[in-house]
Amino acid sequence: MNPRVALALGVLLALSACARWYTPRNPMPIAEVVTLSKSGASSAQIIQRIRDSGTTYALRGSDFAKLKANGVPDPVLDYLQQSFVNDIDLYTRYWVTGEGLGGCSFCYPQPLNVDTLESGYGVVPATPPGYHQRDMPHGTPDWVPYPLKRASAPPLSTSDIEQMAKDGVPEAQIIERINNSSLTHVIGVGGTFTIRTHPIAGLMGSELAQLHEQGVSYAALDALQGQFLAQFIENERLRYMMLGKGSFQ
36-84, pLDDT tens digit by residue? Predict the structure, then answer.
């Protein structure tokens, strides 16, 4: 093939790919997820509808418990968490490499209010999409407590949190412990330096919903989700900084 023709064809393919990526789309309202769940649609059908819409949601920990109470099945809750984590991973990589998605409102996890079943920029108050957030990947919800502060309490597992709730430990003490501990068995799942397309969400949506069923409060779930995401960002930041440079100490 003539080199000029090949170059022209390559440019056209690249432009076509960019057009597909930046074609405006309407995010799927969170209310539709609930409506589909109550209508008897299967988990696979609901997940496919969300995937086809290209929508992710900025879900707090308590949101998973509330969605489950509204009839959203566990596989859908897990998909919602995994897709959210996938996006946070992408934004962290862009942050480390100096890239970004600008003010593309449909490119980021949609802010939402599960109590009113409202979602979307311009509907639910949120930091504007693409707004520069100092020391934090663009697109990260402002309720994620990043940068991390040094852990001052022993490591903590979700089983520990569940047991604390069952033992009647006051909510404020549980939250304080969450905010000052390194979470175990949920960060770096699948290996920090494993070559992979997407990370594995070590804390799934159904697990957060189940913790509420075991007595963990909404506020504690919100703290847990915030810490999980903050520690995940830090783990991914180090991973992207060190790729190709050997392991870090």
Answer: 999 999 999 999 999 999 999 999 999 999 999 999 999 999 999 999 9
What angle is formed at CA 154 by the lines to CA 150 and CA 159, rounded to 5 degrees?
A: 120
> Which strand (E) or helix (H) includes residue 31?
helix 30-39
Would you say residue 208 lies in a domain? Answer: yes
Task: Say what percent of the chain tops pLDDT 70.
Answer: 84
CA distance 219 to 62: 7
**Domain presence at residue 124:** yes
- Print the domain residue range for 45: 27-242
Q: Return the C-alpha torsion angle 108, 88, 69, 38, nearest 10.
A: 50
C-alpha distances out from residue 36 to 42, 56, 70, 128, Å = 9, 16, 11, 29
Determine contact, residues 41/72, Cβ cutoff 8 Å.
no
Residue that has been written with the tokens 């996006």 in this structure: 87
